[in-house]
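Intended use. Records like the one below are meant for learning the mapping from a protein sequence to its folded structure. Do not use them to infer anything beyond what is encoded.
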Amino acid sequence: MFLYLAIFFLMVAIYFSTYEKKAKDVRILVFCMAFFCIFVGFSDMLGGYDRYIYGELFDSVADRLVNKENVFQAEIFNLYKTEIGYDLYNVLIGLFTRNRYIFIFITTIIIYALLFISFKRYMENYPYAVLLFMGLWFFFTFTYLRQVMGVTIAWLSIQYIVDRKRWRFLGVLLIAMLFHNSAIVFAPLYFVPIKKFDKTRVLIVMIICLLLGLSNISGGLFETYGSIVGAEERAEGYAEDESGFRIAYLVEAIFFLGYILYNYHKIPQKPLNLVLLNMGLIFCAILLLFIKSENGGRLGWYYMIGIIATITYLATRAKKITYLGATMLFVSFLLYLRIVYSWGILISPYKTFFTNGIREGDYIEEKYEYDHNYDLDKFYK
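Structure written out for the chain above:
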């Protein structure tokens, strides 16, 4: 746990040391993204179950390539029938390596390269935005590799919304959907008017979303999503999620929405700022709409960059950090600390794949490890 706290406070130190003169120094952003990429990419199956299923599916593809078997009969093509982009991505990487750790590291490099592009385009203060990112999304890049790729690809289309280039937007969105079908939730953004909506109407919509969320409507929405993208079985599993009321969703929505609306008048009437603003509002709406679903919040990831960019803009406009700006960083730290504590053995103690063996007490490894040769030699392939 100490290591993760040290990383957060390292980023805090970078933020305060660069506040006035180097807020948009691209070298700072390169350092932060490269550091996260190495830290996440070198980790030894941290984050939970998902790395094991992605590793197993990749190994199956790579083994078929080496054995000159029909790669299109690999399980991944049956499991992700409508996400052929991710399937073919596995084949492409399998042409160069059979090792799951190299596969995960390459995937992590792509994810953080895409994050770098979006942060460079949309953030007014790189260190502050990075701190918000750490509280909101950093840990999910360890494990939800496929959906994170879908999200970071989808973010490349934001500029096409601003420029009203419909076909380019749809082209990028299609690529994102071919990695993870959930990217379809990003499609409506193109049709949201690029304007600042009345605050009263925004609050009314948020209240309606909360009431709908409390009414268990999320299950029906997942079923609709499954029928649209042809993933009925997976969506049914999401719909049956009964994790109960998600207090973290409510806290995030209240703090972020309150901060944005309090400073609503400070947001300029520029198309990019307005698109990012509306993305932030949609993010809050999704959290409230899926207030009783553990998986529903993941749909909000597609709009999360709007929250990060809008709050970063509002919090770093002044020459000195404001009380409210510092408060938002504290909220981000609490969200970060919550994951560190609640995920426990999933991420602590940290271990890289450069040392053999397994972490003591890692029940995920004990339950889902499919190839114990990796326990003895991480590079036996």
